[in-house]
Amino acid sequence: MAEEVQxxxxxxxxxxxxxxxxxxxxxxxxxxxxxxxxxxxTGFFNKPPPLDPDQQIDxxxxxxxxxxxxxxxxxxxxxxxxxxxxxxxxxxxPDIQRFEYTYLQLEKDFLVNLxxxxxxxxxxxxxxxRYDQRVVDxxxxxxxxxxxxxxxxxxxxxxxxxxxxxxxxELALKIRDAMNSLLExxxxxxxxxDVHFTSFLVQ
Length: 203
Fold this sequence. Notes:
Distance between the termini: 138 Å
Strand content: 15-25%
Radius of gyration: 38 Å
Order of helices and strands: HHHEEEEEHHHHE
Structural class: alpha+beta
CATH class of the largest domain: Alpha Beta
CATH superfamily of the largest domain: Band 7 domain
Helix content: 40-55%
CATH architecture of the largest domain: 2-Layer Sandwich
Number of strands: 6
Mean pLDDT: 77
CATH topology of the largest domain: Tetrahydropterin Synthase, Chain A
């Protein structure tokens, strides 16, 4: 009887070994779960968001560094160092970057006699710009000087020129350039990008 008890007691117990293995496995599972949870919470598994279309165009164009034809140095923008001060106004678009236009109708008609002719030309003019409100304010501020400049340009028109297909477009460009030259003289910045004829009459 005593020998049987001794044999039973001499057999090693398996419970502590199972507990140790279970503890190690549980610790590994807990460690892996903690690491995975941390990575998930920090957004490691999330794909980087696509660039906004505005950011893509800014990066491709170097943030508007004079590559759009309206920046500094083309007769319509400011001098060096004016890009930030005279930034163009933008509006959000789902596809591409678009610029917000501002329009200003100039008061009163412009009436002149054609060079070497009895005919008169009467027009109404509006300007547009993608720059900020300062362009509009400058145009209003120098209204009298701009009117005189515009009339001088219009007076140079001859009667044969009126029959040209591109006459109105060419006249608009001449007026725009003359306005920008005057504004750059007084304000160091033009900003008038287009001239529109809202009324045009020759008689």
